[in-house]
Write a structure and sequence with these properties.
Layout: E1 6-7, E2 10-11, E3 15-19, H1 25-32, H2 56-60, E4 73-75, H3 82-91, E5 96-101, H4 104-117, H5 125-131, H6 137-147, E6 152-156, H7 157-162, H8 164-175, H9 202-217, H10 221-229, H11 232-237, H12 248-269
Parallel strand pairs: 3-4, 3-5, 5-6
Antiparallel strand pairs: 1-2
Helix pairs in contact: 3-6
Length: 291
């Protein structure tokens, strides 16, 4: 079946992965490339949040080279917001939506480490959470209301870790493409966009982030990618001591705090998420810091 979103001046996405970040969105983009149409040279165009004023024709240009016989889309975690949802529903009312959920404590700790890496914060973890509550099941209900349950795919990050091929098969069926064999993918089942340490210098990371943002605003993606291949982004954003595992006492408090959120999601999607309500093994030797 030919993709539905067409116009004389280009095309718009047939599907969107709306996030949130740190829930394998980079892996999904990487493993789907070559099997669907995705934005040229970049994973996230971020049209519906940061670049909406540029206009829909500007957005279409990112899909101009996509194979007309394949669905096209974008995996952009920032779209999981009321503003993103409102604009997507207005401009792409028939789009298919992919929402990914991850253990709320692991997800928040992983996103916190990203915030440290990008020099967005100096706060400790619990202070940062108080300022950045993050996405919840309430957002998912709103996506259901806006697009209908049949056009919203809910993914659980645990399923990817348990059986990556089955996880990907669900995505392929949903967006309407032939199954993609992970064994034949250059990405495979390995994690993408991982890091294990904060910056060696917050000042250096802050300057690098500002440079990267400046280049992105000017659509200089080849330059960004060249800097990345040279290893300079990692040099600027990493190099400190490795992140410590989440402290058991902090985890226990957060498990209690987010239990109602987990239980509401369980009820909404009809799935047992008991593992998200239990603290991990308290033995530090057995614990790991979420990626």
């Amino acid at each position: 079946m030919a993709p539905a979103h067409r116009s004389s001046s280009g095309r718009l996405p047939d599907f969107l992965g709306v996030g949130p970040p740190r829930a394998a969105t980079s892996w999904l983009d990487a493993v789907l490339r070559g099997h669907v149409g995705l934005p040229r040279e970049i994973k996230e165009v971020d049209f519906f949040i940061e670049n909406y004023a540029r206009g829909i024709e500007w957005y279409k240009s990112y899909f101009a080279d996509c194979d007309p016989n394949l669905p096209c889309g974008e995996i952009c975690p920032s779209y999981y917001s009321p503003l993103g949802r409102e604009r997507i529903a207005k401009d792409l009312p028939d789009c298919k939506i992919i929402c990914t959920f991850r253990d709320p404590v692991e997800w928040r700790y992983s996103f916190y480490k990203l915030a440290l890496r990008n020099a967005w914060t100096r706060d400790d973890f619990e202070t940062w959470i108080a300022k950045n509550p993050g996405h919840t099941h309430d957002g998912l209900r709103a996506w259901f209301d806006a697009f209908g349950r049949d056009r919203v795919l809910v993914l659980i990050h645990d399923d990817l870790e348990r059986d990556a091929q089955a996880y990907l098969d669900r995505v392929c069926r949903f967006i309407g493409i032939a199954p993609v064999a992970i064994a034949e993918s250059p990405v495979g089942a390995r994690k993408v966009n991982t890091f294990s340490a904060p910056p060696r210098s917050q000042a250096l990371a802050r300057r690098a982030r500002k440079l990267r943002d400046w280049l992105k605003a000017r659509e200089a993606y080849r330059t960004i990618n060249l800097i990345g291949r040279a290893g300079l982004w990692r040099y600027c954003f990493e190099g400190g001591d490795e992140f410590a595992p989440l402290a058991p006492a902090v985890e226990a408090r957060l498990r209690d705090r987010f239990r109602p959120e987990v239980e509401a999601l369980e009820a909404l999607i009809g799935r047992d998420l008991s593992a998200w309500k239990r603290a991990a093994d308290a033995d530090p030797a057995q614990r790991r810091a979420p990626g």
